[in-house]
Hints:
This protein has helices spanning about 10-20, 25-40, 50-105, 110-135, 140-165, 170-250, 250-270, 310-325, 365-380, 395-430, 435-445, 465-475, 475-480; strands at about 275-280, 290, 300-305, 325-330, 345-350, 350-355, 455, 460, 495-500, 505-510. The chain is of the alpha+beta class. α3 (about 50-105) runs antiparallel to α6 (about 170-250). The strands form three sheets. The protein has a six-stranded mixed beta sheet with strand order 1-2-3-4-6-5, sandwiched between helices. The protein folds into three domains: about 10-230, no CATH class; about 255-415, no CATH class; about 435-510, no CATH class. Helix content is about 65%, strand content about 10%. The protein has 13 helices and ten strands. This is Restriction endonuclease type IV Mrr domain-containing protein.
Amino acid sequence: MENFSLTCNNKKVWAFYQEHKNIDFESMNIIFVDIMLNLSQDMNSSLSNNIAAQLLNNVKSLQSQVNSVSDSLNKLQAETINTFGNKFNEFKKEYFEDVKMILSTNTSDKIAPLVKEYNSILLDKIFIMVNDVIPKNNENLNKQIQENIKVLHNSMNEDTNKLVNSTINKKSLDDFINLLDNKISNTISNSQQMINTIVSSSEKRLDTTINQMKTSTEKHILDIKDISSSNQSTQVMLQNNVGELLKKMEVSSCKGKMSENVLFNILQSLYSTAQIDIVGDQKETGDIMLTRKNKPTILIENKNWSRNVIQDEVKKFIRDVEIQGCCGLFLSQNYGIANKENFEININDGNVLLYVHEVRNDAEKIRIAIDMIDNFKYKLDEIIINNGNSYTIDKEVLDEINKEYQYFVSQKLLQIKTVKDFGQKMIKQIEENDFPSLEKFLSTRYAFSSSKYVCEFCDFVGKNQSAMSAHKRGCKSKLNVVTIDDTPPIISQPIIVSTEKDVSAKKIIKK
Length: 511
């Protein structure tokens, strides 16, 4: 069973509960925890006035509970005063009866010790009664009442000594008893008044604290209402901004602009030393220009269409590349490109043009495409004749090179996938290499270091626990097992069996 505890090291809180002994620390915390739980369940970015109303209801409930505590406190106060007075009067009555009996039946020299003894007995009874009636957590009240009782006890002893030293007659005895009666009655009255004063003072402090809490809570409610109104305005503004953003995304120009920004960030992460410019708002420049040291400049056209890119866009891309006099990379993010294969390479006026389908902002695909342009452009420049713009390479060779590059790219992607699956496939194929019959036979002659799953009914050897469980469910030897009785044991005898090839074998049969 778990143990729980409540502790507090705050001086202000400790002083409050010290002043209000009748308020239970745990009960008050439970009330506030319930309030905070209700607040935390409903409090979010769109606080409403209903939360403030609910908080007010909780405060009213708290006020009702505090009023109940106050009523209980008043009732306890009345009961304490009545019990204290009744007990004290009862002790006083018993004391006077004993004192009168002592005075009437003893000589003067024995009166003083006996009266002092009964004074001590009365004092002990009163102390016990005070500890039982007065709450133990109210140390100040307890201490003050005990001081009054000690003063009463000393006064009673002094009066007893005066009586003994004077002439004892009926008048002196009556005066002595009346004097003690008045002093005890005054002590009872003073103690009751003291209890009433302290409890009333605690009640007033409690009311003051409750009023302060109520005022503070109402102020917090007003603050929450202001926050709620502000949050509602902010939420409406946020919803409007999101709605406008969604509407903009439906427009192709805005959708393309967002895709360009994503591609721009990818290029920045791939080529930290390159100059990357978004030029989509300029005429005949494509979307992005990639400029690097000792590398060809690449014009990048990016399309984020929900269908295949049409041929007119390809023609515009070729025109922009011709005007800028650089290599070009055409990226279709979601679908293909009309009349162009994936990773198709074209040569246009000494520059390399590459078309890539279904890029989906894959940084690896983009990097491979740019590497292909760089390498192809480097090799292409090597074979250009210095005195002209003609090439020493035939068109058929270029077509073959184009096919080889496309094959290279497709094979590279396929090999990456194959390498990932290679380990699992090899493990599966190796596990299939097994000699179950040979293993079963050798297991009856030799011990194996590896653990095997062997059926105890028919010596079947399974590959794993699953195979053994499946075998046992239908094992015929298991079904034919019977309880051994007092019948003689079965004796096995070897029998020699000859075959047509004169190959002999030993076989064990059961008779």
